[in-house]
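It is worth pausing here to work through a concrete case rather than discussing structure prediction in the abstract. The textbook approach is simple: state the sequence, then state the predicted structure, then interpret. We follow exactly that order.
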Amino acid sequence: MDLTLKLMERRLTQLELQLQPIPIVAPITGRLGTVFSVPGQFLVEGTAITQISALQADFIVGYLRAPAASIPQPGARVRIVTQGPNRLSEESHVLSVGAQFEPLIPALQHPIALREERALPIQINLPPQPPTHPRPTRRFNPPRRVLITLLSVGPSDARPSCVHYV
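Step two, the predicted structure:
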């Protein structure tokens, strides 16, 4: 009987430890977005708690709509043009290309698309900080939408192409 009681107490202690709150640290510094859960809520491991947006972009994700005339390779040159007033234009390069065409998110779908559009995600390096000038310059920090033109298909290809990303 004493052995059973000790086993039950040990199990109760283990359960109490499992129910204690777990401190959570964000993996990046950024702006808190949508919160998906509330304090005190029980969650399964791997469940999203909140969305955090970085304060400074590290790269741009462009989408090459299907059908594509050519698929760019890492290192391919691109031109990035911001939309709206005070447009900026910079050259950069492709960092990586997605493995397959995926459904395009609704915000980027053509407004009168008859079927779901598919696109290939392409990670593009942000242009480097512009050199210092006597007059102040803005850092190239693109807004949500930019126009990206593929200047070459591969790192050593010099043929210009007019494939646009949204």
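Step three, interpretation. The chain is about 10% helix and 30% strand. The longest helix spans residues 2-19.
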